[in-house]
Amino acid sequence: MKLHFIGPGKPMKNADAESLKGKLRDECLSGNWFLSLTDVREIIEARRKDYNGARPHISLGGLTPREYSSTTSALQSALASVTT
Q1: What pTM was computed for the model?
Q2: Strand partners, 63
């Protein structure tokens, strides 16, 4: 395995990571005042839980990731019981 580094000024070679960093910076880091590293961790963890649990995603048909996961798990279980 060989490491490949993205050159300076080429963010489109890693668009998913750049999108995540931009959203995190805009929605969380720029809007908060942090008192300690522990404070940063708590705020980012709260944002992660909100993003994954309470916030609907267009790409998931307007469902939260948790709702989508439970829906697909139930569907997979139903399909498994039909095929066996």
Answers
A1: 0.55
A2: 57
What is the distance between the alpha carbons of residues 37 and 43, in angstroms, rounded to a whole number?
10
Which amino acid would we find at residue 41?
R
DSSP 35: S
Instruction: Determine the Cα–Cα distance for residues 8 and 4; give it in Å rounded to an integer.
Output: 13
Average pLDDT, the chain: 80
- Max CA separation in the chain (angstroms): 56
Number of neighbours of residue 56 by Cβ within 10 angstroms: 13
Q: Tell me if 23 is assigned to some domain.
A: yes
Q: How many domains does the chain have?
A: 1
Evaluate whether residue 71 is within a structural domain. yes
CA R_g for the chain: 18
Note whether residue 8 is domain-resident.
no
